[in-house]
Amino acid sequence: MYADENVIRIKHDVLYEVAKLAFAGKLDSHRDHIALELIPGPTPQFRCCIYKEREIIRQRVRLAEGKAPGPEDDGNVIQVISSACEDCPISSYTVTENCQNCIGKACINACKFGAIRMGRHRSHIDASKCKECGQCAKACPYNAIAHLKRPCKYSCPVDAITYDENGISIIDKEKCIRCGKCIHSCPFGAIGSKTFIVDVVEALKSGKKVYAMAAPATEGQFGADITMASWKKAMFELGFDDFYDVGLGGDMTAAYEAEEWAEAYKEGKKKVTSCCPAFVNMVRLHYPKLADCVSTTVSPMCAVSRLIKAKEPDAVTVFIGPCLAKKSEVVDQQIPGNADYVLTYSELRAIMRAKGIALEPCANDDQIASVYGKRFANSGGVTEAVLQSLKESGENIDAKVCKANGAAECKKALLLLRAAKLPEDFVEGMICDGGCVGGPSAFSDQMKFKKDRDLLIAEADERGIHENLSNYDMDSFSMHRE
Question: CA 162 to CA 159: how far, in whole Å?
């Protein structure tokens, strides 16, 4: 995954300015000033001129407000910032200096579209005629024609990205699974996601009951001394009425998914998990015949939101985590009782920065989730929790689970399932490598914070899933997706 400090700084500065103005009630009157403040000029910082840099900032401001960066909006939470997406090569096939300008001209003869012509020193490809079939590259005896894959297109696991005649990337909403891999692969910061920053700020200012819910992947992201108690304290300071560890939702999902697995196993049916929204999008958009295999149990995020709303019907619930597809679960899948808004860590930290609030070390007490729920964020964690729940329920089934870690393994498992050749009974699908801890908006690299995360989870109470859920009224709401 590509990461550039300049791209990240610009993104975070825009989010902060929007959050600050939203709290002050000045966003409508001052939004146009943000570009001038961040790009004062007269010398451009990264692009050809300050005017292009300012236009990029303006489009980023629109994304931060939850709008499409341009005049057209297809409804996708992932959007291309067109003014920033103009510096990648239009043609993905390029003749390199290895070209010997040979007499045979195998490249010219191989091209059926007249896109290659002879040059003085080497052949040239006309990008306006090239259909990117790759025949010229295959024909060249010197391997002098390079295939330059755009980082965004190369990173997309479902081939949802193409580009127009001007070289601007286009994301096909009907193929995009909202995983967010393209966003952090672009070295120009030309792809971003709509945010709910303004909505959350307005909710906090409205006097409504607003609840924060942090993903299980949160533990360890910011160091071993930043616990869920640290988050709870910061969220109270920010104005939230209460805070929940969504690891509790992991316990809830595991308990109900275990019931589904047991029933499906006895009926000889196969099931796939429903907690990763990007995986659910992959199933529904690319393997629609398998839609009935998706578990009907809601995700941990939705489970906690429904738990809250069962007590406070008018409550506003806000999920915080490393996942962009969670925004899709709210906007596209529209599951009743689900979270109202989703914030990534960088978006939530922009809101905190606007109010001068920081995460501080706190004792890791007041645990509301079992270790199984907390491990939902790891690849294989869902399987471990469901199998534990089956054990606690006394269900003696010999369930075999395919733990698909990453988009490639998910695609392989679904292909086997569609072909009726999957040897396992169930599929745990996690689009991000390593699980949610490897999400596109993770604050830290999962390998760097693994030790801190393991330490924090080890400090959690070793109570079972059903023992933990006995503290909550699980009969006051449904755990199914309808």
Answer: 8
Nearest to 278 by CA among 67, 394, 441: 441
Handedness of CA 14, 15, 18, 20 (dihedral sign): negative
For position 91, what pLDDT does the model report? 65
CB 172 within 8 A of CB 161: yes
From CA 422, how far away is CA 406, in angstroms rounded? Answer: 17
pLDDT at 376: 94
**What does the block give as tokens for 116?**
């290659």
In sequence order, what are the beta bridge partners of 213? Answer: 244, 319
Residue numbers in the chain where pLDDT is lower than 50: 1-2
Record the tokens describing residue 78, joined without a space.
């992932």
Token look-up 């409205």 returns 206
Q: Specify the pTM.
A: 0.92
CA separation for the pair 480, 303 (Å, rounded): 9
Q: Note the maximum CA span of the chain.
A: 81
Closest CA to 318 of 282, 352, 274, 354: 352
pLDDT value of position 114: 93
